[in-house]
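A quick aside before the break. I want you to see a complete sequence-to-structure record at least once, exactly as it would be stored in a machine-readable document. Don't worry about memorizing anything.
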Amino acid sequence: MAQRPRPVTSHTGWWQDFFSGLALDFVRHSRDAEDTLAEADFIQEALGLPLEARLLDVPCGGGRLTLEMASRGYRVTGVDLSRSLMEDAKSQIDVGRSPVTFEQRDMRDLPWPSEFEGAFCFWSSFGYFDDAGNLDFLKAVADSLKPGAPFLLDTPLIETRLPEMESQERIWWPVGDLLALEERGFDHVTSRVESEWTFIQGNQIEKKSLSLRLYTYRELCAMLEEAGFGNHQAYGSLDWEPFVLGSTWLYLVTTKLEA
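That is the input. The structure line, written in tokens, reads:
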């Protein structure tokens, strides 16, 4: 009988400690300017909003996409829990020119009812919490949006991740002079990818744990609908290919429904 993958971490609160030290350096340098432009082009077209529209980027990390969208003329608020990432983001603001605001807070706590014309959640940032917490996040985004506003979610799914995964995997990720080893497995009981990360830079070694809940496409749509969204449009790449079985990622555009 095949053994169930051993969970390497609890999903409770891992995100509070992950984004620091060498892991933070890894996150800072894992996307280049070309990636940012391609993603921002997709976000701009997917949301289809006029310049100066108010956008919410949650969680925003170091503000990479927040700042790019602001440079294009949108009024953007970026939210992230990491103090270090918020300091990075704020240090890049062109004071007096960039219509951007950064807020350090939990992504489930968005105190701006019906304030934004659009929102986006990018770079595999959905699924951090348990099911109740993930639903709370979607409800918080819905509450912050005006009726009819679009929400763009970028995420892996069970359909995209499992076909390429073995029961246990070891993947090396080189970023500059930093080397990261991800050892991961899928827990079929909890539907979570459990990852143990080792970050190496010179003689410095740090270990971190990560846990990400994966949903099927139908499960995700049902959760979005419970949160108040509908009219889903699913794409499998930044080139606007339709999402189909065999796609390696999901880019989902959905809409906050009228009350």
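Two observations worth writing down. The helical segments are 15-18, 21-29, 33-47, 64-71, 83-91, 131-144, 158-161, 217-227. The chain has a mean pLDDT of 90. We'll return to this after the break.
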